[in-house]
From TrEMBL:
GO molecular function, a single term: iron ion binding
Post-translational modification: Binds 2 heme c groups covalently per subunit.
Organism: Klugiella xanthotipulae
Catalytic reaction annotation: a quinol + 2 Fe(III)-[cytochrome c](out) = a quinone + 2 Fe(II)-[cytochrome c](out) + 2 H(+)(out)
EC number per UniProt: 7.1.1.8
UniProt keyword terms in alphabetical order: Cell membrane, Electron transport, Heme, Iron, Membrane, Metal-binding, Repeat, Respiratory chain, Translocase, Transmembrane, Transmembrane helix, Transport
Upper lineage: Bacteria, Bacillati, Actinomycetota, Actinomycetes, Micrococcales
Gene3D superfamilies: Cytochrome c-like domain
Subcellular location(s) per record: Cell membrane
Alphabetized PANTHER family for the sequence: CBB3-TYPE CYTOCHROME C OXIDASE SUBUNIT FIXP (PTHR33751), CYTOCHROME BC1 COMPLEX CYTOCHROME C SUBUNIT (PTHR33751:SF13)
Enzyme class, UniProt record, top EC level: translocase
Protein name per its UniProtKB record: Cytochrome bc1 complex cytochrome c subunit
Length: 267
């Protein structure tokens, strides 16, 4: 009798050696993301901008990161303006959007990855606010996006659309400057921009646009951000320029190509 030399493979039920590594990696990613989100939300809730310890920490951060341009007393130098009286809102906006510290001198500050955590940003804001009165960080009730969208749209078209575009898509200004797009911008930073007038933007204080009206504008922008385009492709929401360019390049190009194809077939 000839015995088979093949060995039967037994199913041991063991996982692949890389399965454990993959599970650990997934666990670390999930834990890290949860911790980051918790840390940011906790920092906003727990940092007391009036506490002397917060102001002292902010002063240390300022001295080591900002004083070179703004002066050790924040009274300005040839490289940077005075920060006396700009308030916590201006600091939170500029640092929280990554515009400050500047990457390089130019027509205006570039949005880039943030250098400081939310807690450190609030500490810096607390220090600058302690130097002189100025616009404060807005309360959460004005940032929920549940305001009057119709009123917000009207206010935006009257006060903001000439620079930021009616759809908040941004636009070019003079001397190499530009109005940034507003989609994806945090509600708190939109409010702070209106209250402080960064870069080339005018200041819209409560005498011009009230806190409730700022809430309405934020609600309108968030509505635009979350709604779908019923008319098809948005083409960047840049208006007739983009639409005309599309017609000339795509539409006219298709007509020319069709004409060449028909002529070639007839020949």
């Amino acid at each position: 009798m000839i015995r088979s030399t093949k060995k039967k493979t037994k199913k041991t039920g063991r996982r692949h050696p890389m399965a454990t590594v993959a599970l650990v990696a997934i666990g670390l990613i999930v834990t890290g993301a949860a911790y980051a989100g918790f840390s940011n939300s906790s920092a906003i809730a727990e940092v007391d901008l009036q506490a002397q310890s917060t102001i002292d920490e902010g002063q240390k951060l300022f001295a080591s990161n900002c004083a070179t341009c703004h002066g050790i007393q924040a009274d300005g130098t040839d490289e940077g303006p005075s920060l006396i009286g700009v308030g916590a809102a201006s600091t939170h906006f500029q640092v929280g959007t990554g515009r400050m510290p500047l990457a390089f001198q130019g027509p205006q500050g570039m949005v880039k990855p943030k250098q400081f955590t939310e807690e450190q940003t609030l500490q810096l804001a607390a220090y600058v606010a302690s130097l002189a009165p100025g616009p404060g960080i807005p309360e959460a009730q004005y940032l929920d996006g549940d305001g009057d969208v119709a009123n917000g749209g009207e206010l935006f078209r009257v006060n903001c659309a000439m620079c930021h575009n009616v759809a908040g898509a941004g636009g070019a200004l003079t001397e190499g400057k530009w109005a940034p797009k507003l989609s994806g911008v945090a509600s708190v930073h939109i409010y702070e921009a209106m209250a402080t007038g960064p870069q080339n933007m005018p200041v819209f204080n409560n005498a011009n646009i009230s806190s409730d009206e700022k809430r309405d504008i934020i609600s309108y922008l968030k509505y635009l951000e979350n709604s779908t385009s019923v008319g098809g492709f948005k083409l960047g929401s840049l208006g007739p320029v983009a639409e005309g360019l599309f017609i000339w390049i795509i539409g006219l190009g298709a007509v020319v190509a069709l004409t060449v194809w028909v002529t070639a077939k007839s020949n």
